[in-house]
Task: structure prediction
Amino acid sequence: MKDIASQFEHIYKAVSSESFLKKEALGGEIPFFIAAYDAERENEVSQSIKRLMNKLDTMGIPVLEINLYDIVCDILESKGGMERMFRVEKARSKDKFHRALQSSLNMHEVLMPKIQQLITEANAKVYFLTGIGLVFPYIRSHNVLNNLQNIAKEAPTLAFFPGEYDGFALNLFGLFKDDNYYRAFDIKKIETK
Result:
């Protein structure tokens, strides 16, 4: 599915189906799906996600967008602001800055509780995970997905992934093989009517 428009039409049909929304036919697996796309088409995909969310909302299917980049910016602003992080970046080595950033965005103590709060406050029937490429390398997609499965249980989750997913491994930007992630379904393989 090289064509973004046809890919999003397929996603729309899959996500709006009753079996998807009711998490049927998953064989007991968690309701996680991956929509991989060419990272070079990020802007087109971002616009298509917004249109898809509006279309689903019009149909009475509210979507919660869990945009990792926006969440990270909110967290950093609440911890002294972005200017503070820029000063830390200038004052420390690359490795020390990376560790400081990861500490500020601790997966279990900071990031997941923030996402849990968003999920609790939303009345969504579907969760869209976006901004994955924008938070690399300080937040890795497989870590988010592994931790998200513990809190995103009420609705199916669709992760928009800039890279490749073969059903077993995530390959960010087509360049960086992430740790294997076997627990998600490829949305392209979901049959639609």
Q: What stands out?
A: The two ends are 17 Å apart (CA to CA).
